[in-house]
């Protein structure tokens, strides 16, 4: 049975003002409401109230995972580095990976994700096709050495993730497991009252064939999403495709050198020659795992570095500065792939499909007219590496893409057999042949989801908890607590709430009514009950809904029923 919690003995301190470094609404509310306390950059202590909130979020996610048929387990956060060497991700994660050694100088990592560990477990347990399909999940701490922790619980160095992993005999059944998790995620965010939009996404260091993110569109989000209002296309900026402006039609003409004094940018080049930016080819320089790469792309477009990194299968990709460009014998502002030797060239399809482009002459203050792919230059790799931006045309229809900021809440992947092969997860089919399992991966950052709930559910006075996630069902404000009639009424209210299984936070502190009401609004429980001589004189106790602000005096015997009517 639920037992009420007295604030006079509760480990909780609220703040009238949030610290200046708290910029996001959720960060300010977390600190002001006393839910968390910063310990270091990207590391937070959860108070008893904050931990209750986290557990409510966790339980909501658990309910939907179980409903989808997933089975809960627990995997170690500390893992031998050999697992990560088997998968190849010891290098891929690079500096993000925390590495430690034990007293015998054996190397371990603090896991940022658990594909390796769950694959090792599955390899020891999965034997037959009868063992598949199966989806396993856990709530576990993750560790990532983020260079720029930010936004309170938005980007942390230690955080709790619900991560799930499906093992299937083939791609067809993986599609079913993936859909079950996708639907479960949609239910989770709906119940948490955080509107989340599924978008196409890049798989990043997790790898895999297909992936989708659930994004909460929010001006404080650090992700960019491209949306088409005409057909509903939605994709993360790292993944998004678009329909570029068509190239200017022409017959190939002979190359011609032209002096361009002081011209070093695409905009100034187009203005100087009286051409459109789409009639130029732009040179962009990168170091991919330390090796120089020359990227050629049409002048009106930008390079999508995520697409480029994936194409090159690079762990690290960094832009080269002018000094590094010069060391390779290139001239920043007047470089082109024409006559280039000894350097890997990657081209966006836009630069290979256009005719008679203007490119650099590889000497200062000079450019070449009528540069054509195939005749004048070639590339080692050609692919779509262009960045989609707001205003570009949708590839799926004739609509226009709109760019929005958003906060990633969940990510689902079709991993395929990459980890099954690396960790040897195999099964015998009904004819006795061995096959590698096909995997999926599904993650939700629980801390971040908690922050998103506050981003989506607050007003100028404080938090407005959804009933499904509130740390307490009811906030009871006691005024005149030394008066016998108030003590008696409070006892009746607490007993009724306890019998009904409703958890109450009772403000019995020796504080002014104004301070108590402000804290009640700040903490944001769905229902506030005020036990006071005034309300008792009016025939009961005052009930106020936090979301609507509606108030009414309710007879003591009807309080639980009225709370139930409001969904608590």
Derived structural class? alpha+beta
List the total number of helices.
Answer: 16
From the spread of the alpha carbons, the general shape counts as: elongated
Question: How does the major sheet shape up?
Answer: 9 strands, mixed
Helix share bin: 25-40%
In the predicted model, the low-confidence regions spanning at least 5 consecutive residues are none
Termini separation comes to: 16 Å
Compute the CA-based radius of gyration: 30 Å
What is the average of the pLDDT values?
95
DSSP strand tally: 32
* DSSP strand content: 25-35%
Tell me what you see in this structure:
There is one protein chain. With 568 residues, the chain is of the alpha+beta class. The protein is built from 16 helices and 32 strands. Strands 4, 8, 9, 10, 11, 12, 13, 22 and 25 form a nine-stranded mixed sheet that branches. A six-stranded mixed sheet has the order 1-29-28-30-31-32, with helices on both faces. A five-stranded mixed sheet has the order 17-15-16-18-21. Helix 1 crosses helix 12 and helix 2 (48-67) packs across helix 6. The model has no long low-confidence stretch (mean pLDDT 95).
